[in-house]
Amino acid sequence: MSASAVSDNAASTATSQILGLVAGEGKLPAIMAQSAAARGYRVIALALSPEAASQVSPHCEKVHVIAPGQLTRNLKLAAEEGIRQAVFIGRIPKLNLLRNITKLDWMAIKELTKLPNFSDDTIQQAFGGIMENHGIKICAQSEFLRHLFPDVGVLTKRQPNAAEYADIEFGLKIAKDIAKLDIGQTVVVRDRIILAIEAVEGTDQAIRRGVELAQKPVTVVKVAKPDHDPRFDMPTIGMTTLNAMKASRPGGVLAIGAGETMVIDQDAVVRFANEQGISIVAV
After folding, report:
1. What distance in Å separates the CA atoms of residue 136 and residue 179, rounded to the nearest whole number?
2. Residue 231 shares a structural domain with residue 104
3. Are residues 32 and 160 in the same domain?
4. How far apart, in whole angstroms, are the C-alpha atoms of residue 230 and residue 260?
């Protein structure tokens, strides 16, 4: 084999170990960066905000703050960094994109006008498709974070009681229906009465609204969308979810889809839930 072929082989191997991290808000991007780095990847972050950049920078080789609507610049940057595979993770508030509509470049405007709607799935799949058309494979989050997805069972000391299991069953049907319509993934229930349904405001605000209306412990059900794309928008819960439930009084149930919902800081989440009398169950 020639020296140039050996050199090309080495360059190809190095490039294959670069992971582009499209980082939104929250703790997950930093956890993802740590997990990928532990597996030998050179992680290069494309952070969607200065806050996201500060969270992931300790675990990344390089961090670039980007505007999601500047597609031409972002694709050029990814090519310059040798990114051939990437993962999307973290909250990407759609309201921020709408408020910064003037920051879209011509490519973004052209692609967005092709979309049938502006749902999260539609936007993410479109942007992911553009990246893949430019030679960048989009990886599933679970490839790096499988340890965050609990299996079927009760995670906490307290089991739900019979009335709460009835609320879980009722809430699951409603949650799956609204997820199918791409409205949201979370419902808040008590005594088989729907108190709140998640929309664009997000899970925590929906929970707070339901708790305020109930003035009693509630059952929160969060599911994945049917036929959801595992590369984007995996359901996630963490301490902020439990703090939203705690707004009224101790107690309540948090039901999540087993094997399809990520639990951030699971030890701390379970400990806090036990202290507050909250039951967490993966169904």
Report:
1. 28
2. no
3. no
4. 9
End-of-domain residue from the set 129, 145, 161: 145
Is 117 in the same domain as 154? no
Considering the domain architecture, whether residues 197 and 230 belong to the same structural domain is answered as yes
Total domains in the fold of the chain: 2
pLDDT in tens, the chain (283 residues): 444 444 344 344 444 489 999 998 888 999 999 999 999 999 999 998 899 999 999 999 999 999 888 899 999 999 999 999 999 998 776 555 555 555 788 898 888 888 887 766 777 788 888 999 999 999 998 889 988 999 999 999 999 999 999 999 999 999 999 988 888 899 999 999 999 999 888 899 999 999 999 999 999 999 988 877 778 768 889 999 999 998 656 799 999 999 889 999 999 999 999 999 999 999 9
pTM (2 d.p.): 0.78
Which two structure tokens, joined as six digits, stand for 167?
């609320």
Q: Which CATH number does the domain housing residue 271 bear?
A: 3.40.140.80
